[in-house]
Amino acid sequence: MGTDDPIAATRRWLQRAVIGLNLCPFAKAVQVKDQIRYVVSDADTPDALLADLADELLWLHEADPEVVDTTLLIHPRVLADFADYNDFLDQVDAAIDALGLEGELQVASFHPDYRFAGSDFDDVANCTNRSPYPMLHLLREESIDRAVEAFPDPEEIVERNIASLERLGLQGYRRLLDE
Q1: How far apart are CA 82 and CA 111, in angstroms?
Q2: According to a count of CB atoms within 10 Å of the terminal CB, is the N or C end of the chain lower?
Q3: CA 10, CA 70: separation in Å to the nearest integer?
Q4: In the chain, what's the furthest Cα-to-Cα distance?
Q5: Cβ-based burial of 41 (10 A; exposed 0-12, middle 13-18, buried ≥19)
């Protein structure tokens, strides 16, 4: 999927995997309401991406949540190596804090080579956080709180997702995205 238009590939991934497999039971509502902002960063260094992230965090903070509830900041030209990406997440948290947005916004991480600590690269459970391009998902804490109220046991979501992906298998997951 890496040769596609990043937004088109991300929309397809969101529709087929995240919503289609119900990996996130809250994604469909914001997608149907067209409340997802898709932004492709031209950054080719971590510092440039950090600047883009700060701009997007401030933009989302000021935006009307009824119009835009969440942002997917796609960055195809930087942090392609998962270890580098994973290390960068500390800077993401520091940026949220420096902007005074802790408790208001947070960032979830998605990457084509996402790998949970202690897992094998080909463990299908990693697919819960694998996306066609490296991206940072900017979320409003208020939206997360509402979602958790509606679905109070998030561990159940994780367990259900892993079970669904294990039934599908790694090759099945790849076929789903390539169809």
Answers
A1: 7
A2: C
A3: 14
A4: 43
A5: buried
